[in-house]
Specification:
The complex is a heterodimer of chains A (129) and B (206).
Chain A (H helix, E strand, L loop, with lengths): L2 H11 L9 E10 L4 E12 L4 E4 L7 H18 L10 E9 L7 H18 L4
Parallel strand pairs in A: 3-4
Antiparallel strand pairs in A: 1-2, 2-4
Helix pairs in contact in A: 2-3
Chain B lengths: L9 H14 L1 H10 L14 H12 L7 E5 L2 E5 L26 H12 L5 H11 L5 H18 L4 H12 L14 H6 L14
Antiparallel strand pairs in B: 1-2
Classes of the chains: A alpha+beta (129), B mainly alpha (206).
């Protein structure tokens, strides 16, 4: 049995948990790792939706150089939403309303961790877990 | 980066400068590119590692400890303190008298591992430590080693993590700007863990 494939299929096909209200959280990564530092800070709005959807606020830069950071933040949110609760939380609209990029300390991994922080906070607000 | 860095070079800058003054630009380039220290090369009759160890030890008040040679990888090093050898700068304070002029010791690596453990596992740092254990001695290997030892000492003195990090960069003569990590991490490590680095640190060929 290919467990990875089976697990991935379940994430996509299991019924989604439902969000009963809109929730806005801040996801932060600010960590010293010895010779370097990881920093990222995002505000994320979670709203009920029929299907999974991602939007970006009007103040979010869409420069190519920033795009990888934005994608990493969304991946980080998904890391939590899809596996943290008893069922995936997939029917949700995610809007990245603010994205703070530090020119020295930001990296894709910093934004992935900030996205995970946002995901954990919305789960805590919903008392899931 | 040029061979000569007259200001802001910290301990490593003085180390390079000393090699330049004594042996010329070619050997100074080897310091930069290979981590080679002609002052510690036992093949040089007039500059044996023992004499150099005594010279540096006497200069810094550590002559009594500069007598024990120790081999790490392909280098032969005079052992001076638990963390390394070949001189302690007057601007270096701290309980362990951090030595950062190039020699890399097992004790120093152990100290680095202990220091980094407080931040949790990080594959890029683990890869750099693996390089040190394998005898890596490029400029980036040495800078990583130096950075962690000095930062650990500053934090042991009570500086918070951010202040110790920035002060250590300043001490090393590394400007805090996008991509500064390329001075501290080997390009192979940055390539392998590229998502963990600021894009400005990525090797140019990427």
């Amino acid at each position: 049995m290919n467990y990875l494939t089976k697990w991935f299929d379940a994430i996509q096909s299991d019924p989604s948990m439902l969000l009963d209200r809109s929730i806005s959280v801040t996801g932060l990564r600010d960590k010293h790792l010895g010779p370097r530092w990881e920093y990222a800070n995002v505000d994320v709005l979670f709203e009920p939706a029929a299907l999974f959807e991602v939007r970006f606020g009007p103040d979010i830069s869409h420069d190519d150089s920033d795009r990888a950071f934005l994608d990493a933040a969304i991946f980080g949110v998904l890391d939590i939403l899809l596996v943290y609760g008893p069922d995936p939380l997939r029917n949700v609209r995610i809007t990245l309303t603010r994205c703070e990029i530090d020119p020295v300390r930001s990296s894709q991994m910093a934004f992935r961790q900030a996205g995970r922080d946002a995901g954990r906070k919305v789960m805590a607000a919903l008392q899931i877990g | 980066m040029g061979v000569m860095r007259q200001s802001g070079g910290g301990q490593f800058g003085r180390y390079r400068q000393d090699v330049y003054d004594r042996y010329g630009p070619d050997e100074a380039k080897r310091v930069e590119n290979e981590g080679y220290d002609p002052r510690l090369d036992p093949q040089r009759e007039s500059d044996s590692f023992l004499m150099q160890g005594i010279f540096w030890g006497a200069m810094q008040g550590f002559a009594e400890a500069a007598q024990v040679p120790k081999a790490i990888g392909t280098q032969i090093l005079p052992q001076e303190t638990p963390w390394g050898a070949a001189g302690v700068g007057p601007d270096v304070a701290g309980p362990s008298k951090v030595v950062t002029l190039g020699p890399i010791t097992e004790e120093g690596i152990a100290r680095i591992e202990q220091h980094l453990s407080q931040f949790g596992p990080d594959p890029a740092n683990q890869a750099m430590i693996a390089r040190l254990k394998a005898g890596g001695a490029t400029a980036q290997d040495m800078a990583f080693y130096m950075h962690e030892l000095h930062e650990a000492d500053l934090m042991a003195q009570g500086l918070d993590a951010e202040a110790a990090h920035l002060e250590t960069l300043k001490w090393q003569g590394i400007e805090y700007k996008p991509g500064y990590e390329s001075n501290i991490y080997h390009p192979d490590v940055i390539r392998e863990y590229s998502k963990r680095f600021n894009p400005a640190a990525l090797p140019k060929e990427q």
